[in-house]
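Deliverable D5.2: sample structural annotation.
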Amino acid sequence: MLEDEFGREVTGVRVSLTDRCNFDCVYCHNEGLGDTRGPMDPQDDELGTDAVVRFLEVAHDFGVGAVKFTGGEPMLRDDLEAIVRRTPDDMAVSMTTNGTFLPGRAEGLVDAGLDRVNVSQDALDAEAFAELTQSGAYDRVLEGVEAALDAGLAPVKLNMVVFEPTAGYVPGMVDHVAENDGLQLQLIEYMPELAGHPEWAVDIQRVHDWLEAQADHVETRAMHDRKRYFVSSEAAARAENGTVAAADGGGDAAGLGMVEIVDPVGNADFCANCHRVRLTHDGYLKGCLNRNDDLVAIGETKASMREAFRTTVAERVPYYGEYMIEEDGEWTFNEAYRDSEGDRTPYEYSKDD
C-alpha cells in the first residue's frame, strides 16, 4: 500500500467514467474539473472499458480496497455493468449517480458486484428540484431510489449539497430519511472555490448546530472528525418555516434518520485523513479534488499506470492547511507549492510506456 509524505495510505480511488450528464445542476463542479459538460454521445477522450479495468487492477496491486464510480453521470456508460463485473473481486464497489437510470439496471449492477450507491437528491419538491438540476426528472429519481432499495442496495445514501438555494430544504430531507427505512442523508458543504458563486455558501456550522439540537444521539467517526446525527422524524418536522436556523429541541419518535455532514473547509481532520486519489474520465490521476495542477496521465499500459500512481501519491498535499493556508480568516495559496515557472502543467507519459 502506498503512503504519501504526510503518512496517509491510499486505500480508495474515485473513478470518473464520463463528464457527460443528463442534468445541469447549478452547483456542479464535475469532480473538480469545472463545467465541461457537452454532448450526450460517448466522447473519444473517455477511457475505454479495458483501460478502466487495467487501472483498477493496478490500484488493487497497490493495496487499494475500494472504488467509487462517478461522473458526470456514470450510468450513461453502457459498459458500466461490465466494468463493475471486471473490478477485482475483493474491492468494494460503490457509485454516485443522479438515479435516473437505476430503474431497469439496479438489479443487474448488484449482480455484477455493486455494493453501495449514493443518489444525488437536493429537494423533495419537483419544482425546486427542476430549478436546481435544470431537469424534469424528479419522479424518475424517486423511482431510481426505490429500484436501488428493491435491488438490495440499502442503505441508499442521498447526497444533498447545502448552499443558499437548498438550506431551507434540509429539515424536510432529514424528516424524509427518518420516515423511510433504508435511506440515509449526506449533507455536502458547498465549496465555491470549485463551483463559483461565493455568495451561495452558508455557514455549515449552523447546520451542525441545528442537527445537534434535533438529534436523539450523535456519533463521531474518527476519520475526518465526521459527525453522524440520528434524528427522529418528529424532531425534524418541528423546524419552523423550513429553515435550519429555527428549530427547537429533540424528539422521541420511533423513526430515526442518519444524517452525516461532509465539511472539508476549515475541518483540519478532513484533508489530514484523506485516503483516496481520483481518476478523471480522460485518463489523468489527481491527488486532490480541489486541484488540477497535479494531473498525471496514466497512459495505456500497466507500467505507465503504476508510475503515474506512484507519482500522484508521492506528490499528494493536503489542500486545506498545507496547499491552502488560512491567514487572517482567509484561505490563501501556500507559495511553497508554486514551481519556478508558475502554474504546473500535467505530467505526460508516452502511450508506449
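Annotation notes: The longest helix spans residues 49-61. The chain has a mean pLDDT of 87.
The annotation will be released with the project's public dataset once the embargo ends.
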